[in-house]
Amino acid sequence: MSSFADPTLEGARSSRPSRARRAPVSRLGLILMAPAMLLLTLFFFLPVALTGVFAFTDLSTSTGIGRGDYVVTPNLLRELGDRGMSSADLEAVSRASVTVDAETIERARAAGVDGRFLDDIEGDFLGRSFDAPSDFERDLRRLRTAPRRARDLKSAAALFETSVLNQRFTTSDGLSAKLETLAPEVTPAARAQIVDASYTGARFTTENFERLATQKETARLVANTFLYVGATLSLFNVGLGLFLAVVLFYTPKGMSSLFSTLWLLPRITPVVLYAVMWKWFTWEGGFLPILAEQVGLPSFNYMKGSVVTAWATMITLNGFIGASFGLILFSGALRAIPVQQLWASEVDGASRWQQVRRIILPQMRWPILFVTAYQTLSLLSSYEQIWLTTNGGPGRTTTVWALEAFKTALSNYTGNLEYGMGAAMALVLVVVGLVLSLIYLRLFKFNELVGRPKIEI
Amino acid sequence: MTFHMKSAALAALLGSVAFAAAAEDYTITVWSGGTGDSSNYRIDAISIAAEQMMREAKVRGEDLNITVEGQAWSGWDDFKQAVTLASEAENAPDIIVSGHEDIGPWSEAGLIRPIEDYVYFDTWPLNTIYPNLIQTASFNGQIWGVPQDAEARVMFWSIPALEAIGWSRDEIESLADRVQSGEFTLADMVDTVKQMQDEGVIEPGMGFGPRVSNGPDYWQFYQSFGGEMADPETGKLIVDTAALEGMYGFFADAVEQDVVSQTHLGTEWDVWHQNAAAGNYGAWHGGTWHKAQWQNQFGLEDFFGEVQYTLIPAGNEAGRANSITHPLVYLLSATSTEDESAIAAELIAMASAPDINALHAVKSAHLGISEDETQVPLYAGDEWLAAASERLAPHTNAIPNNSDFGTFWTAMYQGLESSWTGATDPAEAAQNVADSVKKSLGDNVVVR
């Protein structure tokens, strides 16, 4: 944009008093915006940024969320053996011994072990060493002054022990130093390999996306999500919403307010209660199956008993929530249509259907686009109603992307929570959502909407 | 203000006096997963132990106060999520009662402490616990938990339905032996329940009533077709594609034959329990503990007269009749203080005494954890536990403790769901499992 584009702005810049007048306004604007920015940062930018980072890690239940530790375990040594580490090295690292000498006794005294107990240890075992820590522990228990509590005795015994196995080190240097004193014959390269492999925390990886791109399950999840969003949106959020708005537009005012309020019920009912009501409605012994039985139709658990009815239930129960949103928006837009146009058309002998087709629908383009755009995004990321009702079943036939992401990251039977993989799936949703938003903004010609009015009012 | 200041000072003074008298106050929290109405002793046993410990302290002249706060989750998803997230937030309970398979991932992540650091396993009562159960509570050369119960999973058969299709008393009696020897297979079972349906004894689609949700139970069918979950020597996970295909094929075939519905998975538990207790299924599989639920909540009266029980039959020549035990274990959270963990561990040890554990075993129809427990009159007098201990328990094995097993498990169940609902054919589903597990776990898994 050239500096000649806006002479008024240019003028404002050159005149000092007017800039002074503008300053408090913009500061006020910033202050007013600050809470919104703070909330946006806390609840949108930060989570998205964290999701972005987690998506490129193998963060899971077994890595833990925080920083990992460095632990050498028997399983790790076996794995290293499988990867070709020499058995001499592995044996050196897994060495454990117990030595009772002046140094270890002093160490125990410094750690606060009971003095009488230490005197007994010194008297009975000074200068001795044990191959197995359990032998030493058993001998300690025979001492008259041994602590009553197992924990106290075991932690005292551990002070005489030299071993690296199953000990958690917070830094790689700590483990490395310990390995160096315990097994000096292990080469620095092998030591570095052990230390690296012993890290229990998450590591950076692109594997999540590779898995998503190659596994067959992805295609099914995408197809399910398309079906769910497409059907709910077209049949209910837009279709039913528009139908109801038009019908209520032609009904007397009192009646139309009553019906509008009734259609709001699914939206204002708490989601758990709403899900429970649908269960009463569709399960064995519920309203629909009993009704079906009366009229001789197949009667079973419609929510979970067959793939087709599960889909129908899931789309309908989500659609009823979304329909009210469309209804309110469309009703508002309908009232904005100059009523003279309808009078004129009636003078010309137009039927109701012709009014809807020729006058109402053409003027509803923007609200329809808006509802479509807004609801696509919210349906894409919603899973709570599905989780509470079909739970993605029967089998996995009604599992959509958002539900799978939630289950992968946060809730599944085996408790194997794959935060990294779940974050990768969520990131895909965020990206799809952002791309769709950009497309919709272009379709809406958002710039024109928020642009300078063509005439001053 | 002055009054407040004074009272604060007084409180502080009283506090320090109390401290000098060595009064110790502890609140021990216990969270227990998969715990319904019949299994209240998972938590209550800790309260009983706390009572005993306070008495013992009093005898020694110490002043010890322990309050036990318990929370039971009926399912597993929410419970495991809660434990994991609470641990990450350093807010976990002192004692966690969960499946032994959680020891792998939770110990690696540093969420739990090895209980062997807090109690002696060579003194009573922990030294009486069956060594194979201690094995299931061990990982990486350390004992992480104390087994809380054990069980066997069972194939149940409706005796009235078997009689109705002409089975003699002898044939019904000898079924357990024929299943155990491998003579009577899963295919024979499908034929039998199909016959029940054809003759109108059992309604169509109700011949076979498998477990309605994910569970260790489905690994039994993997074993029926020769599958091994992990190498017993190295502990490495094994994906046996042929066994997976056999198992998926069996369920797909059962759907094909209409002895179970295509959408059975995901049925409500209560519906399944009602059908099982009412004898609406020809054959169904569950666990020893279900008997207690059917009798207490679902109105089953004459269990032994109406239900025959066997191992899960073999699927083919490669497999064997088997049963899986899934011991729950008492675990110590790593977020407690050392003192709380020491108290918690001692409470767990005391709660594992044969007479206290027998309360849980008998009430919930779980198997006991020690040889001594079978001598407790309450336990010895229970017909079902005695019968299950004899016929089923010796043939049980547990799922492996391996931090990667959850990945394999999730994939196995996804494959089962997709072949059950007909979305994928069994061979393809088995191959998908092998591919995805290999991709996730690399060298840590062997694909056969």
UniProtKB/TrEMBL annotation, chain A:
GO CC term (a single one): plasma membrane
Span of the signal peptide: none
Coiled-coil ranges (or none): none
One of the GO biological process terms: transmembrane transport
SUPFAM superfamilies: MalF N-terminal region-like, MetI-like
Record carries keyword Ligase: no
Protein's membrane topology: Multi-pass membrane protein
Ranges where the ABC transmembrane type-1 domain occurs: 223-440
Superkingdom of source: Bacteria
Transmembrane stretches, start-end: 28-56, 226-250, 262-281, 308-330, 366-383, 419-444
Gene3D superfamilies documented for this protein: MetI-like
InterPro entries for this protein: ABC_transporter_permease (IPR051393), MetI-like (IPR000515), MetI-like_sf (IPR035906)
CDD domains per record: TM_PBP2 (cd06261)
Keyword terms of this UniProt record: Cell membrane, Membrane, Transmembrane, Transmembrane helix, Transport
Pfam families given in the database record: BPD_transp_1
Localisation per UniProt entry: Cell membrane
Family: Belongs to the binding-protein-dependent transport system permease family.
The protein's name in its UniProt record: Carbohydrate ABC transporter membrane protein 1 (CUT1 family)
Origin organism lineage: Bacteria, Pseudomonadati, Pseudomonadota, Alphaproteobacteria, Rhodobacterales
From TrEMBL, chain B:
Domain of life the protein comes from: Bacteria
Statement: the UniProt record of this protein carries the keyword Magnesium: no
Cited InterPro entries: SBP
Signal sequence coordinates: 1-22
GO-annotated molecular function: maltose binding
Alphabetized Pfam families for the sequence: SBP_bac_1
Name of the protein in its database record: Carbohydrate ABC transporter substrate-binding protein (CUT1 family)
Organism: Allosediminivita pacifica
Organismal lineage: Bacteria, Pseudomonadati, Pseudomonadota, Alphaproteobacteria, Rhodobacterales
